[in-house]
C-alpha cells in the first residue's frame, strides 16, 4: 500500500446539475496541504463556508449522504468522495458553486478521470492509516444488514446485495487492490434504482436532476404506456422517451457489468468510508449495505480510531489482553494510593463500554479496620472502583485529560449482592446509557468468579480542574 500522502498537481473542474436538487454546479478540485483531508467549500455563499467531509458532519442519508456545518449543506457526496478515496488522494480542496455535485453519468468515473488529468503528487508526510487489529462490526437486524471490518495488512471490500427481484437477484462483488481495480472495475458503475422508486421520487420532486442517462432503472412493476408517458413528463425528459424494455432494465439499457448494482453499492461504501478522514487497513465484508448502515459503520470505525488514539497516547507498551495498564491509568486518573482502586483496563469501546480489573489483596489498607478478623471490602469502595472505571470511559480523548477531572453527580439503585474478600479479583463492567455534553450516566456491575457482587447506576460530569 502507498506510504506517503497525496494531493493534486493542479486544479480541475466539472460542470453539471445535481441529481436530487437539479441545481447547476461547477465543482473544482484543488491541491491541498498535508493533513488537510477533504473539504467542500460553497463558493456561491457569503463567506465561502467550509464543510469538512467527516462522519460527524453527516446530517441525512436519504437517497445519498448529505453533510453540513450549521445550515450549509452538501448533498450526495458519495460519488465524489469515492473517486478521491479510490485514487488514494488524501488531501483535496473541493470548491462548489452549488449545494450538490453534478450527477454526470451516475458513477464516479467522470470525477476520477478528471482527477487523474490533474496529476497526482506525493507529499512529505506519511499516510495516517487506521489499522484494524480486532473485529469492528455493525448489525441492523431489522433490515438484515451486516458489516464487519477484520484485521488485514491491506484494504479489501466485499459487498453482497439481495433485492429479491428477478431483474437483479442476489449479487456480490469484491475489490482487492485499489490501484489495480478501482478505475477499471468500480469507478464506472452507475447508481441504480427501481422503477417504482422513480415514480415515488418524481411525485415527491426529489430527483429534479434525474434522467435516463444518469441512472440504471430496474423494472420491478408493470406500467402502461400512458403511465410511462406521465412519468416522462414529470422527469422533464418527454412523454415518448420511456419504455419498460425486455431485459428488465428501463429502455433496455445495457449494464456495464453483469453485477453493476453490487459494484455501485461497493462504490457508495468507499465514498462513505472516506468520511472517516483517514485510509484504513482492513478487510470489510458488507451484506445488504446502504448509506444509513454505511454511516453507522463508519461511526463505529471512528470510535475505534479514537480509542486507539487514546490508547497510543497513554499505553506506550502494547500488552496482550490489556488496553491500559496501571502506568497508563495513573496518567489518565488523578487518584493515587490509597485511593486508586483499579489495576488495568481490559476492554474499551468508546462511549459504550469499559471493563476494568481490581485485584483485592490483604495488603489493602482498609482491611485493617473493615473488619479485624473478618476482612471485607467496603461497598463504598467497590462503588468508587466502578466510578473510576466509568471515569476513564468519560475521559475519551476529546477533553484535555490533564486539565479535567470527573465528579460524581448521583448514585442510584446500588445493590451489594455478596461480600468481596482478600484474594478476590473484581471484574467491573460499565456501560454508557446516556451522554449529554459533559454529563453521562452509566450502569456498572462488579463480578467475582463470574458472580455478581455489586451493581449501581451512576451519574458523573467532566469539569475543568480550575473550576
UniProtKB/TrEMBL annotation:
Q: Which GO terms describe its cellular component?
A: cytoplasm; membrane
State where the protein is found: Cytoplasm
In terms of Gene3D superfamilies, this protein maps to:
Hotdog Thioesterase (3.10.129.10), lpxc deacetylase, domain 1 (3.30.230.20), lpxc deacetylase, domain 2 (3.30.1700.10)
Positions binding Zn(2+) in this chain are 79, 264, 268
Pathway(s):
Glycolipid biosynthesis; lipid IV(A) biosynthesis; lipid IV(A) from (3R)-3-hydroxytetradecanoyl-[acyl-carrier-protein] and UDP-N-acetyl-alpha-D-glucosamine: step 2/6
Q: Which InterPro entries match?
A: FabA_FabZ, FabZ, HotDog_dom_sf, Ribosomal_Su5_D2-typ_SF, UDP-acyl_GlcNac_deAcase, UDP-acyl_GlcNac_deAcase_C, UDP-acyl_N-AcGlcN_deAcase_N
Q: Which reaction does it catalyse?
A: a (3R)-hydroxyacyl-[ACP] = a (2E)-enoyl-[ACP] + H2O; a UDP-3-O-[(3R)-3-hydroxyacyl]-N-acetyl-alpha-D-glucosamine + H2O = a UDP-3-O-[(3R)-3-hydroxyacyl]-alpha-D-glucosamine + acetate
Tell me its cofactors: Zn(2+)
Q: What does this protein do?
A: Involved in unsaturated fatty acids biosynthesis. Catalyzes the dehydration of short chain beta-hydroxyacyl-ACPs and long chain saturated and unsaturated beta-hydroxyacyl-ACPs. Catalyzes the hydrolysis of UDP-3-O-myristoyl-N-acetylglucosamine to form UDP-3-O-myristoylglucosamine and acetate, the committed step in lipid A biosynthesis.
Family the entry assigns = Belongs to the thioester dehydratase family. FabZ subfamily. Belongs to the LpxC family.
Q: What is this protein called?
A: Multifunctional fusion protein
The encoding gene = fabZ
Amino acid at each position: 500500500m502507498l506510504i506517503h500522502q497525496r494531493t493534486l498537481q493542479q486544479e480541475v473542474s466539472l460542470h453539471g446539475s445535481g441529481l436530487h436538487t437539479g441545481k447547476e454546479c461547477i465543482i473544482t478540485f484543488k491541491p491541498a496541504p498535508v493533513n488537510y483531508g477533504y473539504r467542500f467549500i460553497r463558493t456561491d455563499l457569503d463567506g465561502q463556508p467550509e464543510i469538512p467531509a467527516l462522519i460527524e458532519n453527516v446530517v441525512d442519508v436519504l437517497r445519498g449522504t448529505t453533510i453540513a456545518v450549521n445550515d450549509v449543506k452538501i448533498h450526495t457526496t458519495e460519488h465524489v468522495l469515492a473517486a478521491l478515496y479510490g485514487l488514494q488522494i488524501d488531501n483535496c480542496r473541493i470548491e462548489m458553486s452549488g449545494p450538490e455535485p453534478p450527477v454526470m453519468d451516475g458513477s464516479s468515473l467522470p470525477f476520477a478521470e478528471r482527477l487523474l488529468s490533474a496529476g497526482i503528487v506525493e507529499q512529505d508526510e506519511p499516510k495516517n492509516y487506521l489499522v484494524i487489529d480486532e473485529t469492528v462490526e455493525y448489525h441492523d437486524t431489522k433490515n438484515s444488514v451486516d458489516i464487519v471490518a477484520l484485521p488485514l495488512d491491506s484494504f479489501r471490500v466485499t459487498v453482497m446485495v439481495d433485492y429479491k427481484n428477478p431483474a437483479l437477484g442476489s449479487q456480490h462483488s469484491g475489490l482487492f487492490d485499489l490501484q489495480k481495480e478501482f478505475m477499471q472495475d468500480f469507478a464506472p458503475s452507475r447508481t441504480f434504482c427501481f422503477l417504482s422508486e422513480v415514480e415515488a421520487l418524481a411525485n415527491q420532486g426529489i430527483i429534479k436532476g434525474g434522467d435516463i442517462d444518469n441512472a440504471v432503472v430496474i423494472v420491478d412493476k408493470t406500467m402502461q404506456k400512458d403511465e410511462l408517458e406521465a412519468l416522462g413528463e414529470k422527469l422533464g425528459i418527454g412523454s415518448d422517451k420511456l419504455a419498460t424494455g425486455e431485459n428488465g432494465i428501463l429502455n433496455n439499457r445495457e449494464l456495464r457489468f453483469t453485477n453493476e448494482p453490487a459494484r455501485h453499492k461497493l462504490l457508495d461504501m468507499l465514498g462513505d468510508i472516506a468520511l472517516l478522514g483517514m485510509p484504513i487497513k482492513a478487510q470489510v465484508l458488507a451484506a445488504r449495505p446502504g448509506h444509513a448502515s454505511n454511516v453507522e459503520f463508519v461511526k463505529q470505525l471512528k470510535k475505534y480510531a479514537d480509542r486507539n488514539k487514546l490508547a497510543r497516547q497513554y499505553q506506550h507498551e502494547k500488552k496482550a489482553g490489556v488496553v491500559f495498564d496501571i502506568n497508563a491509568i495513573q496518567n489518565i486518573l488523578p487518584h493515587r494510593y490509597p485511593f486508586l482502586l483499579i489495576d488495568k483496563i481490559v476492554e474499551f469501546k468508546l462511549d459504550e463500554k469499559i471493563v476494568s480489573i481490581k485485584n483485592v489483596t490483604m495488603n489493602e489498607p482498609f482491611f485493617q479496620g473493615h473488619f479485624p478478623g473478618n476482612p471485607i471490602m467496603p461497598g463504598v469502595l467497590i462503588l468508587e472502583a466502578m466510578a473510576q472505571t466509568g471515569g476513564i470511559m468519560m475521559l475519551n480523548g476529546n477533553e484535555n485529560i490533564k486539565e479535567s477531572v470527573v465528579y460524581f453527580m448521583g448514585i442510584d439503585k446500588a445493590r451489594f449482592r455478596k461480600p468481596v474478600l482478600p484474594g478476590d479479583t473484581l471484574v467491573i463492567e460499565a456501560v454508557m446509557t446516556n451522554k449529554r455534553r459533559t454529563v453521562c450516566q452509566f450502569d456498572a456491575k462488579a463480578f467475582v468468579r463470574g458472580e455478581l457482587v455489586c451493581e449501581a447506576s451512576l451519574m458523573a460530569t467532566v469539569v475543568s480542574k480550575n473550576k
